[in-house]
Amino acid sequence: MLADDLKTLLATEYAFVIKAQNFHWNVEGPDFYQLHKLFEDIYSEVYGSIDDFAENIRKVKSYTPASLARFSTLTEIDDEAGVLMPESMISELLLDAEKMQEIMKMLFMESEKLHHHGLSDFLAGRQDAFAKHAWFLRATSKV
Ligand SMILES: [Fe+2]
């Protein structure tokens, strides 16, 4: 069901933001500043879409989950409780950004089936935003 899938995706976006913040706060090494800034750019962009995301759930006549407990049961991205090496931070966030693109793609198709064109447009934009995050992470990890 579209509303349920949107709730899952909202929780997953939140989990992505928290993970990018973990990496922003805890990264260390010779590339510290560059990675600290990259992770900040990423979490800021994703966080900037959270409110629109939640409001899109209201537009399809459902209530928006808004608690850490709900988010942690709904998210499709695994939490990262540890402090990783910089290369692992990049590769893990890259996999998550690619996963986000796939989820956005599926939801776009679901939305289009129901002719929610405004929502589809929003989801297409989010897919593209994660494609950009994935590109930046991929380019950063190239040796
Ligand atoms: Fe900061």
By secondary-structure content and strand pairing, the structural class works out as mainly alpha
How much of the sequence lies in strands comes to under 5%
Q: Report the C-alpha radius of gyration, rounded.
A: 15 Å
Please bin the fraction of helical residues: over 70%
Distinct ligands, ions and cofactors found in the model: fe (ii) ion
- N- to C-terminal distance: 43 Å
User: What's the average pLDDT?
Assistant: 97
Helix count equals 6
Description:
It is a single chain. The chain is mainly alpha-helical and 143 residues long. The protein has 6 helices and no strands. The longest helix is centred in the last third of the chain and has 28 residues, at 86-113. The structure holds fe (ii) ion (FE2). The site of fe (ii) ion has 2 residues, from loops.
Describe how the helices and strands are arranged.
Elements lengths: L1 H25 L5 H16 L2 H10 L8 H7 L11 H28 L3 H25 L2
List descriptors.
single chain, mainly alpha, 6 helices, 78% helix, globular, binds fe (ii) ion
Task: State the gist of this model.
The protein is mostly helical and 143 residues long.
